[in-house]
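Work package 3, deliverable 3.1, input record:
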Amino acid sequence: MDLMTLLQLLDSTVRLATPLLLACIAGLYSERAGIFDIGLEGKMLAAAFLSAAIAYTTGNVWVGLLAGIGASLLLSAIHGVASITFRGNQLISGVAINFLAAGLTVVIAQSWFGQGGRTPQLAGAARFNPITLPFADALRDVPILGPIYYELISGHTALVYIALLIVPVTWWVLYATRFGLRLRAVGENPAAVDTAGVSVVGLRFAAVAICGVLCGLAGAYLATALQAGFTKDMSAGRGYIALAALIFAKWKPWPALGATMLFGFLQALALRPDLIQRTLGFSVQTQLLDALPYILTVVILAGFVGKAIPPKAGGEPYVKER
Amino acid sequence: MDAMPKWADVVLIPVISLVLAALLSALVILAIGENPWEALKLMVDGAIGSTYGWGYTLYYATNFIFTGLAVAIAFHARMFNIGGEGQAVLGGLGVALVCLYIPWPHWSLALLGGTLGAALFGAAWAVIPAYLQAKRGSHIVITTIMFNFIAAALLNYLLVGALKPAGSMEPSTGKFPEPTHLPSFQDMFSTADTVMFRGAPANITFFVAIAACIAVWALIWRTRLGYEIRAFGHSESAAKYAGISPTKIIMISMTISGALAGMMAINNVMGEAERLVLNAVEGAGFIGIAVALMGRSHPFGVFLAAILFGFLYQGGAELALWTSIPRELIVVIQALVILFTGALDNMVRMPLESFFLSRRRAAQRKSKLTAAE
């Protein structure tokens, strides 16, 4: 494998890992606050649809992005009300949200655009377009570093850079701010937070809302940056893979970056059967390649996580003492 | 003392949840510019207005009884099996292998063999996540979802490769041989001069599903194993203390769950299509979650909820045929039912409980007053 091929592979790794990274960090906020969220998938899907639909109608992708975040926040609110206010089962609520998104997106898309549950193709300003970083063209001919800068680092859409920026920001919020300390505490021992006079319900709703915003970014990225429009069920299990990555990363931001890059690499590899054939010397059925990220998710969850200890109060509704 | 009479718990709450889900669905239909009342009339007419409609409704209901029981039995052990879809896909593979490669003399033996094949393959697909949960602590919800994707890929791989008959372009197996044809409702109930259930896919599997309901009921409430499963579901630590092995309960309950989900295949693969095609399960594995929640994980409740969803499914197909409402509306309704009966249960329950409590207090006060006089 030469440098160019490797760079192409890594380039698509970054592109495919971005939605996973955003969803994974979204789940991190929610689960660190003690709210399990199986509904990442549905929130991404809803955001993907609405961002594409609004971007197409207005011709402005940023308006679309806002609409996508709005859709995701709405589902977050349902999850919050169900699991925080009414102390319902968080897994079941998440599953309901996934089906709600899967059904509603197609029903609305069909009645809105009449194209069999898709949005029309997006083009121009209705999409996130690649950004060429400064000097990328000038430095292109510098050996080794030039192509790396031009192919791998430059030329992504704005959301990719935002996603990468969110990792240090999350690290800072979680470990260096008062909000972060309280957020982590509410996932471990909500009674202690309550005793200190801080609202458990408020903190958890804040975490669920942040989760909604990030899922909105992830979904909008799928429909307006990675692809040019919404298609039925386009999230394709990414929300679940992000959850697996979150467990693999032991609910920490920097390892989350690593874990999602790994899954992104697997997805990128699955798209290049020719590469696998050239390096391994035999061809692998495309259907099996499609299953590769899912199989590895299971393998990683089963064996290579080490001891992953989830936030102690995760999944447990908090009942205030009376 | 319970806050509510039992009838309110098992009847009133599901009914209220269902009404809420129906109202929201009506709003969705309104929002996309159709008339909900007309839609309901179309659904009723299409799903239960004729023996043909009933034939489809009961056919779908049969699928949902199996997948609903599968989710319900896992719920009793406090396991959330979202993998019914994949287990049913694998069940289909089991049925196809049994029907294609074993020369059956008669349909009754083929049904027995098919059931065994379906249950075995479905169970196998559930045992791996169960083992990983019990021994490695990997979350069963995520692994079963992953196994759904893997099952779809595996079936795709087999249907474009090894199982496709030579010369065929379609990704499916060849037609099963004639002796494996299961009697349909049309074969069973038509008399010499009237044809009932003409062309509808409902078949003898419906009665197998009823038998499965009874068997699951007996297992859960009349056997030692069922008691252990329920005890484990109520409190893992108490069950451990009583000498019940968590690994054993997780493995056994998930095996039964997977076997039940797999058995759905004798209805849709052997009874209806009579060959294995891609996407034969059509989301029935997921509908099982709504059915189990709605039926309160009780086999009789599952049976009723499955009939209801059979009605919704067939009615939804009619809607898609005659109006601009797409079939995915059923997914929305299913999501709302899961939301209201599962996650927002307390939203319905809390006001009802306080209502019954205040009524009881009022009655007590009154009886005290009359006693004082």
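The longest helix of chain A spans residues 3-32.
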